[in-house]
Every structure is written in C-alpha cells, then in structure tokens.
Amino acid sequence: MKKKHRDLAKPVTVGDLDDLASQIITAVSKETTRIEGKVDVLDQKVNALDQKVTMLDKKVDKLDYDVSDIRRRVIDLEVDTVPRKDFQDLKFLVATHRHP
Predict the structure, then answer these.
(1) Per-residue pLDDT tens for 12-57?
(2) What is the per-residue pLDDT across 33-45, written as a single tens digit (0 to 9) for each?
(3) Handedness of CA 75, 79, 81, 83 (dihedral sign)
(4) Contact 24, 1 (CB under 8 A)
(5) 90: left (phi > 0), else alpha (psi -120 to 50), else beta?
(6) Using CA atoms, how far apart are residues 15 and 21, in angstroms rounded to an integer?
(7) CB-based contacts of 1: which residues, under 8 Å, 6+ apart?
(8) Rounded to an integer, what is the distance from CA 59 to the centroid of its chain?
C-alpha cells in the first residue's frame, strides 16, 4: 500500500480520517485472515499429533501387557523347573534304588 504524503499544514478532514480508518481496517482484516490460516494449519498439526499420541499410547499399553505376560511366564518357568542339583540327585536316587 502506498503511503500518501500530505501537507502537514493542511487541516485534517473527515474524509482523511475515513480514508485512514479504511486503510487500518483493511490491514487488520488481511492480518486477521493470515493469522486464521496459520491457526488452521496449527490445529491440523495438533490433531495429527493427538492421533499419533493415541496410537502410541495403545502400543505402549500392548507392550506393557506383553511384558507382564512374559514376566508371568518366566516366573512360572522358574517355579515349575526343577533345579539342576535336585534333578541330578533324583537321577542318582533312581539309578541307585534297588527294587526288591
């Protein structure tokens, strides 16, 4: 927008004020439109990030469940597995036990 140079010795008229107000309103309107466009883009990005976070939360929950399941299985294996020494002792007893 070109700036009008005006003679400062000349009094300001209502028309001058109306013209200035119109220029200000136009500039504010353009800036508002530009900002609204940027806000829309940011909203879209935030929504996309929210969807990704939701997806990652579900994956973390699944991993937590899987890890818990693996821990339970390891504990079950530890409880159900006969220690090597006990197994060797049992083999020895079976081998040395004589049937009458």
Answers:
(1) 889 999 999 999 999 999 999 999 999 999 999 999 999 999 999 9
(2) 999 999 999 999 9
(3) positive
(4) no
(5) alpha
(6) 10
(7) 23, 26, 27
(8) 12
Q: How many residues does the chain have?
A: 100
The widest CA-to-CA distance across the chain, in whole angstroms, is: 135
Q: Which residue has the tokens 């996309």?
A: 48
In SS3 terms, the chain reads as: CCCCCCCCCCCCCHHHHHHHHHHHHHHHHHHHHHHHHHHHHHHHHHHHHHHHHHHHHHHHHHHHHHHHHHHHHHHHHHHHCCCHHHHHHHHHHHHHCCCC
Asked whether the beta carbons of 16 and 5 are under 8 A apart, the reply is no
Which tokens sit at 37? Answer: 């466009």
